[in-house]
C-alpha cells in the first residue's frame, strides 16, 4: 500500500486588527505536496471547519511546483477538503501543516487539532510543519502531561522575520511562544532555507524551507516503511 499523508489547513482568511488578508502560503503547501507526489504517496487534505480554505501568495504562481499545484490535483483537493473531525486519521503515515499567517488565527487552541497531532506523534508517525504552521504544535500535550515541543529541536518563522513582516497583525510571536513551552529553537538567517528533524518531528523556518521539510518527511516515511 502507498504511504498516506494528511495535510491539515487553516480556514482563516483575515488576521489582526486591520483584517489583513491571509490564507495558506502557496509555496508552503505546494512544495511539500510536490515532494509527496514525487514519492507517489496518497495525499489527502482536511481543514478545521470543512469550508473552502484560502490561498495566499498567488503572485508566486509562476514557480513550477506552485503552478502545478494550482492547475493539477493539489488545489482541487485542498479546495474541497472535508472537516478535520469527520475523518479517521489512524491509517495515515504522516501529517503536515503548512504555514501562512492563517494558522495563527485558528490553530493555537483548536482542541481537535491538538489531539490529532498528539496521536500522530505518540504512535511514532511523522509530524511536519513549516513557517507559521508550527503554531499547530503549541499547546499539544502528550499523555505524560508534557508539551510536545518541550525539549525538541524546532524551527519556525522567527521573531526577526516577523518583525519585518506581520508583527502588528499576529496575536503573538511564534518563536517566543514555542520557546516558552520548552522548544529548543533553531533560527537561521532570515528567509534562508532551514528545516530540521528531531525524531519523528520535522519543522521548517519559512517559505524557503518548505521543500526541505517535504524531503525530510519523505526520508523518514521511507525509512519507517523499508
UniProtKB/TrEMBL annotation:
Q: Which InterPro entries match?
A: Class_I_gatase-like, DJ-1/PfpI, Prot/Nucl_acid_deglycase
An example Gene Ontology CC term for this record = cytoplasm
The organism's place on the tree of life at top rank: Bacteria
The DJ-1/PfpI domain, residue ranges: 28-217
Instruction: Show the CDD domains listed in the entry.
Output: GATase1_Hsp31_like
Please provide the record's keywords in A-Z order: Lyase, Stress response
Q: Keyword Signal: yes or no?
A: no
Q: Name one GO molecular function term.
A: glyoxalase III activity
The keyword Oxidoreductase is assigned to this record: no
Annotated GO biological processes are:
methylglyoxal catabolic process to D-lactate via S-lactoyl-glutathione
The protein's name: Thiamine biosynthesis protein ThiJ
Amino acid at each position: 500500500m502507498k504511504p498516506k499523508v494528511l495535510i491539515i489547513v487553516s480556514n482563516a482568511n483575515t488576521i489582526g486588527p486591520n483584517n489583513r488578508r491571509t490564507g495558506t502560503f502557496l509555496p508552503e503547501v505546494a512544495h511539500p505536496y510536490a515532494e509527496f507526489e514525487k514519492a507517489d504517496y496518497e495525499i489527502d487534505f482536511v481543514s478545521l471547519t470543512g469550508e473552502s480554505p484560502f490561498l495566499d501568495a498567488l503572485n508566486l504562481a509562476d514557480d513550477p511546483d506552485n503552478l502545478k499545484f494550482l492547475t493539477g490535483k493539489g488545489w482541487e483537493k485542498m479546495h474541497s477538503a472535508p472537516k478535520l473531525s469527520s475523518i479517521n486519521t489512524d491509517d495515515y503515515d504522516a501529517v503536515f501543516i503548512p504555514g501562512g499567517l492563517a494558522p495563527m488565527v485558528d490553530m493555537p487552541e483548536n482542541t481537535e487539532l491538538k489531539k490529532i497531532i498528539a496521536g500522530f506523534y505518540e504512535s511514532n508517525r511523522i509530524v511536519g510543519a513549516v513557517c507559521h504552521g508550527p503554531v499547530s504544535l503549541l499547546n499539544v500535550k502528550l499523555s505524560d502531561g508534557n508539551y510536545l515541543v518541550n525539549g525538541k529541536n524546532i524551527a519556525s518563522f522567527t521573531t526577526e522575520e516577523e518583525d519585518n513582516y506581520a508583527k502588528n497583525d499576529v496575536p503573538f510571536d511564534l518563536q517566543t511562544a514555542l520557546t516558552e513551552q520548552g522548544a529548543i529553537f533553531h533560527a537561521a538567517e532570515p528567509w534562508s532555507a532551514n528545516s530540521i528533524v528531531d525524531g519523528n518531528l520535522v519543522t521548517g523556518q519559512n517559505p524557503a524551507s518548505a521543500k526541505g521539510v517535504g524531503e525530510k518527511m519523505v526520508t523518514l516515511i521511507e525509512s519507517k516503511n523499508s
